[in-house]
Design goal:
- This protein has a domain at 79-272: Urease accessory protein UreF.
- It has twelve helices and two strands; from the N terminus they run ββαααααααααααα.
- The chain has helices at residues 52-67, 83-89, 95-108, 110-126, 130-142, 147-167, 171-179, 186-196, 201-223, 228-237, 239-250, 262-270; strands spanning 2-5, 8-11.
- β1 (2-5) and β2 form a beta hairpin.
- α3 runs antiparallel to α9, α4 (110-126) runs antiparallel to α9 and α8 (186-196) runs antiparallel to α9 (201-223).
């Protein structure tokens, strides 16, 4: 921003922090508040260089984008969460019916449950609460309606741990492996990694749910089929549902978790015996 005062020109630098403000005017941190403390000379750093806080937030964003990218090697593209059967049965046959199906899956079904598991895994890791971490890991592996859904979440969870441990190792990931040696659901793996890398849960959770929905949409686009622009319209239409589901998951006790998507759960069961299949679930 440039302000002219007589013959003097005052340049006000625009920093990444000032550009990261929401409608309320408050900044939305990518990292936990304990990492946002600035040193006494932070305000005097050169404008052309990133300070410690900005570097930390940049690293958090970089890792989130990498881990939740369709290119991350966890095999997400091969699962449809029962959408393939829903298309064959005629429940999903257009962009609008796909949007409606996914909105319910996200807000009242597997999407919401995965969000709650993510939150509690993140918090248990941050608090070094081994008992709570084991409890949520065990529940996430058991809380699936079908054999294929179990395969979907645990195969991706294991692949995520392996890839992230190799490329972005941290003590939290190694500690989790020593605490829990059972099947690992995907939201547990991602929640532990985000906590271990000091990525704030409030930031990471909507990103995780966005990636989940985007993968569902990708499956629907290929199955119905739809155009890529239709897929983006659906993703845009579900933005508020993602935000609302994340907000609800952040305040839901683990004991209150539950779903109400019986038809979607049946779809994952019927898919096991579907005659022709493109997806593993």
């Amino acid at each position: 921003m440039t302000t002219h005062m007589g013959m003097i020109t005052v340049m006000t630098p625009i920093t990444p922090t000032t550009m990261n403000k929401g409608r309320s005017g408050a900044t939305r941190p990518l990292v936990r508040s304990s990492l946002r403390k600035r040193g006494p000379r932070a305000s005097k750093r050169p404008d052309s260089r990133l300070g410690g806080n900005e570097r930390t937030e940049s690293a958090a964003l970089y890792r989130l984008m990498a881990w939740l990218s369709p290119a991350y090697p966890i095999g997400a593209f091969s699962y449809s969460s029962g959408i393939e059967w829903a298309v064959e049965a005629g429940d999903v046959n257009s962009a609008e019916t796909l949007r409606q199906w996914l909105a319910v899956m996200l807000a009242e079904g597997g999407g919401f449950c995965d969000g709650v598991f993510f939150v509690h895994a993140h918090r248990a890791t941050s608090a070094s609460d081994n008992q709570a971490l084991r409890a949520v890991a065990e529940l996430a592996a058991a809380f699936v309606p079908s054999k294929e859904r179990f395969l979907e979440t645990t195969a991706q969870g294991r692949a995520f741990l392996d890839a992230t441990g190799a490329a972005w190792p941290c003590p939290a990931l190694a500690h989790f492996e020593s605490v829990w040696n059972g099947a690992v659901g995907l939201p547990i793996a991602v929640g532990v990694a985000c906590a271990g890398h000091d990525i704030a849960c409030e930031t990471a959770l909507p990103a995780f749910l966005h990636a989940l929905v985007a993968n569902w949409i990708s499956a629907g686009v290929r199955l119905i089929p739809l155009g890529q622009t239709d897929g983006q319209r659906i993703l845009a239409a579900l933005e508020e549902t993602v935000a609302a589901t994340a907000a609800r998951a952040l305040t839901t006790p683990l004991a209150d978790i539950g779903s109400a998507t019986f038809r979607a759960d049946l779809a994952t069961m019927r898919h096991e015996t579907q005659y022709t299949r493109l997806f593993r679930s």
